Amino acid sequence: MVNEKGKMKYFSIMEELKAKIVKGDIKPGEKLPSENELVTRYQVSRHTIRKALSILQNEGYLYSEHGKGTFCSERMRHQKNSKNIGVITTYISDYIFPRLIQGIDSVMTENGYSIMLKNTGNSRDKEARDLEEFLSKDIDGLIIEPSKSQLACKNIHLYEALDQYQIPYVFIQGIYTELKDRPCILLDDCQGEYLLTKYLLELGHKHILGVFKADDRQGIQRHKGYVKALQEGGLAYDPEMVIWFHTEDRRTKPVLEVEEKIRQGVPLDAIACYNDQIAAEVIKKLQSLNIRVPEDVSVTGYDNSYMAENSIVNMTTIAHPQEQLGAMAAELLLEQIRHVPREESRVERLIQPELIVRESCMRRNVRI
Amino acid sequence: MVNEKGKMKYFSIMEELKAKIVKGDIKPGEKLPSENELVTRYQVSRHTIRKALSILQNEGYLYSEHGKGTFCSERMRHQKNSKNIGVITTYISDYIFPRLIQGIDSVMTENGYSIMLKNTGNSRDKEARDLEEFLSKDIDGLIIEPSKSQLACKNIHLYEALDQYQIPYVFIQGIYTELKDRPCILLDDCQGEYLLTKYLLELGHKHILGVFKADDRQGIQRHKGYVKALQEGGLAYDPEMVIWFHTEDRRTKPVLEVEEKIRQGVPLDAIACYNDQIAAEVIKKLQSLNIRVPEDVSVTGYDNSYMAENSIVNMTTIAHPQEQLGAMAAELLLEQIRHVPREESRVERLIQPELIVRESCMRRNVRI
DNA sequence: CCGTATTTGTTCGTATGTATT
DNA sequence: CAATACATACGAACAAATACG
After folding, report:
1. Residue of A98, A129, B298, B304 with fewest CB within 10 Å of its CB?
2. What is the CATH code for A84-187+323-351?
3. Residues of B with CB under 8 A from a CB of A
4. Fold designation for B189-320
5. Model's pTM, two decimal places?
């Protein structure tokens, strides 16, 4: 009772038709092939076709008229000027999120827009559901923080649907490689980690352990900056000195592997962490191992979050202008909504990082 | 193809079942006869029965479980069906807000709702604008954290408008006295501050300075608990030992007045602060005055926010189940949307506080 | 206006799959 | 394991609305 995709026939037919409608292959008001045509096309019974169609009718994608045919609903076309915009973030944490939203909100409220909020938990499937949800509602624009931005995007068709409906959207923090040309506000993460690593090198560190996230753009870029600084500093890049982690194991792997390296006796005098959160956990772990920060090991964070300023050891980190980022994204989206051409855009799209020096790093006395 | 009543078989069967549900002959949660039983009862084919049932399922009257049966829904059909709900908070800070929203979001998303977010900056005028905005949009319900909940409410007419449009709403954190009977999720702030103050008294403190917010319910309630504990402990309540502040001067007044009291030489061995944020600032100020916490002065916070755990001194505070509060508010709102009567409500509305003891308080040696 | 073909709507019968008890 | 109940699927027939020559 299952087809090759492991789903019910009526369900996959329904999905296929829905995708065509969402993408615009079937346009509002257009007549669908008759039930009998669909029967021969899909090689299923009429009953199965009718089941698929009835779902789409219930969801409002289709309507049918007795004796005439089945048609794509008009109501699926979006009325502009709902004065709503959507925001999709990865997490609703107390880490970056609040100030980001604050920045978006202040600009958007000022311009008379309301914000609809969704989050993905950094899951692609949830992102797809959120996008479909927003596509079915009336929004004038969308700000999206991509989920797992470094992996190939499965949701391209949904973004293409946004294009088709002329709903502008702006990426923040990261961008899918398949959608590189879309408007986007990024932090120069490569440069940021470069500054941090260079700073560590200048303090005389020789064995800098890197801890980076493998499944988002930020992680890859920060790693790049780390490598660049090492090479400029004349130190060989050693893959053994880098710990990679993913969203799923972020709470355990980084700290455990740092501990492992130390137990193995790997020489290290500094740890460059993916962000403040990881840095805070690493510092706690080091202290529990009776390793002092910064006296024995220097640690750097990233983002300049509250943790960087309110932890046991105040961290050297990179400023993350969270609120500004939100405000800039909002302004860029407003430009898109107002069809301001690229040349006239007044929104800077690459934010330059700024090194914040606090007390988590200390000069090493280098003996030769 | 018409029966004696001039209607389709499936249609009249559907109507007959619907009438039974509406009348109460079939009660919520009750199991319907199996499809085959209905087949023999109505003398129609199983397909016809399924067609009738599927309509009622789509309208939300019924749901069916594979292998178990078909059941009458708990929920009644909602007329408004935008599947949007509004949330109005006072601030979008990284203090309470993120986890609160997280709790609301997880419940609401699970039930197919989208969240529209607005914040007031604790301003009544902004709250009025937000309410008007939501009234003009299509929302099925509203969760509101009142702004300056202790002052007389100027926006009653807007809440009455919500009543008129039958848009249910739920208050969190506080409630306007004029709207006391409305559904609401509160923390027992009086009891919370009572626990803290009692704890301080048990540690032998005799001069407990209170710092409270004057313009919201929480501040007033916490002050009440503070007074209650003092009186039970046999200490006279001294208004001079309480610092009141408002939203507008929250960033400066509390710390300045604490400093002032100390310079005046007012004897004090403990400070009970309105929340962790104030406590953190007070601790910083005390340390800058070379007063040690907790050796010289004990300090308590409130909310058990990240600050309580990640500051220079880990604070004794009251747990604020932020995420749970959000989830409970969301569930209460769903009950309102589904017209669940008060007696059948399964949402607790007063959250009991829990004392979290950390290192910001220390026993005093009392000499007599 | 009529007749025919097309298209959706309703109904029945039958068989098999799968979850629950 | 068997019985029960819902889920999916195919086939067939006829009704009712519509389109078109």
Report:
1. A129
2. 3.40.50.2300
3. 54, 58, 84, 92-95, 97-99, 101-102, 105, 109, 114-119, 133, 137, 280, 306-307, 310-312
4. Rossmann fold (3.40.50)
5. 0.72
